[in-house]
Amino acid sequence: MRIVAVTKGHSLAAAGAAVAGGLSDLGENRPDELAAKAARLDDPSIRWHMIGHVQSRKARAVAMSASLVHSVDRLKLARRLSRIAEEADRCLEVLVQVNASGESTKGGLPVASAIDQIGQVADLRGIRLLGLMTMAPLTRDEGRLRQVFGATRELMESAATAGLLAGRELSMGMSNDYEVAVEEGSTVVRLGTVLFGERPGALGP
Ligand SMILES: *Cc1c(COP(=O)(O)O)cnc(C)c1O
């Protein structure tokens, strides 16, 4: 089980404190913030995780500063990251993000039709596809959470059985739902609020 400490919206000092406390996996959801924090902390023991949407024009910054990109949500982005990583002779690990809740506000490939694109991502030479990531709906309905996480796990298992994955990783679970996610097979939880408290400004005035 890996914990990614989500430092988005928190200071460099907070990120540094997490590292001093033994958390060496840090996550950001915006490419600019990730690149800036990675450059300023400049610690080779930190593994940086890109967990948010990546616009195509930010692909280079992400490919050069992240160790693992959780949020590969389209083939075009996968191709671009692969090409950049290959040119830079970098090994970039990725997860395909799936939308297992069906909510239009969530990114990711629809689970029902994802396997074909997962196969195409797996074929790219510049990246290593380790598994899948998903975001659950904001709900306390445990049955609903289990359904979303379970569907993601089943898709990961199908992809692994088909020989498409270089790992069996499942990035599932945030502060409000990580217990259920872990019970449903998560291997990577992305935790912000439970580690650092509310994000400054997150609550508004
Ligand atoms: C912000 C964020 C998290 C962490 O959220 P918390 O509720 O603060 O734990 C996890 N995953 C993604 C994709 C995020 O954007």
Structure characteristics:
TIM Barrel; 9 strands; globular; 9-stranded parallel β-sheet; binds pyridoxal-5'-phosphate; alpha/beta; 205 residues
How are the elements arranged and paired?
Elements: E1 2-6, H1 12-20, E2 25-28, H2 31-41, E3 47-50, H3 59-65, E4 68-72, H4 75-87, E5 92-99, E6 109-110, H5 114-122, E7 127-134, H6 142-161, E8 169-171, H7 178-183, E9 188-191, H8 193-196
Parallel strand pairs: 1-2, 1-9, 2-3, 3-4, 4-5, 5-6, 5-7, 7-8
Helix pairs in contact: 2-3, 3-4
Residues 6, 8, 29, 51-52, 135, 174-176, 190-193 line the site of pyridoxal-5'-phosphate.
Structural overview:
Strands 1, 2, 3, 4, 5, 6, 7, 8 and 9 form a nine-stranded parallel sheet that branches. The chain is globular. The termini are far apart. The protein is built from eight helices and nine strands. It has a single domain (2-196), classed as Alanine racemase (TIM Barrel, Alpha-Beta Barrel), CATH 3.20.20. The chain has 205 residues and is of the alpha/beta class. Helix 2 packs parallel to helix 3 and helix 3 (59-65) packs across helix 4. It has helices spanning 12-20, 31-41, 59-65, 75-87, 114-122, 142-161, 178-183, 193-196, and strands at residues 2-6, 25-28, 47-50, 68-72, 92-99, 109-110, 127-134, 169-171, 188-191. The structure holds pyridoxal-5'-phosphate (PLP).
